[in-house]
Amino acid sequence: MRYIRYAFLAALAVVLVSIALANRGMVTLTLLPEGLARIAGFNPDISLPMFVVIFAGILAGLLIGFVWEWLREHKHRVEVRRKTREAGQLEREVKRLKGEKHQGKDEVLALLD
């Protein structure tokens, strides 16, 4: 299994390096539209290699997806936490009731019940 993981990571690295080498050309990113930049008083332009833009887009998409999924699963985590707390309370109650039932009896006979 470990070798399969290493082979997959190596293939992924080859693909990413080939994408980076094929997209080395510089592109200019303008962060605000021209009209909005005039209103704001500045026009931030950034020149980056195209592969950086591609990888940043992929990374941003993954992060947005992870956060979205974490927020979506919130109700499930709350439910698990509530059920765990309830199970702990029920275990303590069973222990207390068993102790009350066998109070004053011989320990060996209490174990047999």
UniProtKB/TrEMBL annotation:
<keyword id="KW-1133">Transmembrane helix</keyword>
<keyword id="KW-1003">Cell membrane</keyword>
<keyword id="KW-0175">Coiled coil</keyword>
<dbReference type="Pfam" id="PF06305">
    <property type="entry name" value="LapA_dom"/>
</dbReference>
<keyword id="KW-0812">Transmembrane</keyword>
<feature type="coiled-coil region">
    <location>
        <begin position="80"/>
        <end position="107"/>
    </location>
</feature>
<feature type="transmembrane region" description="Helical">
    <location>
        <begin position="46"/>
        <end position="71"/>
    </location>
</feature>
<feature type="domain" description="Lipopolysaccharide assembly protein A">
    <location>
        <begin position="46"/>
        <end position="94"/>
    </location>
</feature>
<dbReference type="GO" id="GO:0005886">
    <property type="term" value="C:plasma membrane"/>
</dbReference>
<protein>
    <submittedName>
        <fullName>DUF1049 domain-containing protein</fullName>
    </submittedName>
</protein>
<keyword id="KW-0472">Membrane</keyword>
<dbReference type="InterPro" id="IPR010445">
    <property type="entry name" value="LapA_dom"/>
</dbReference>
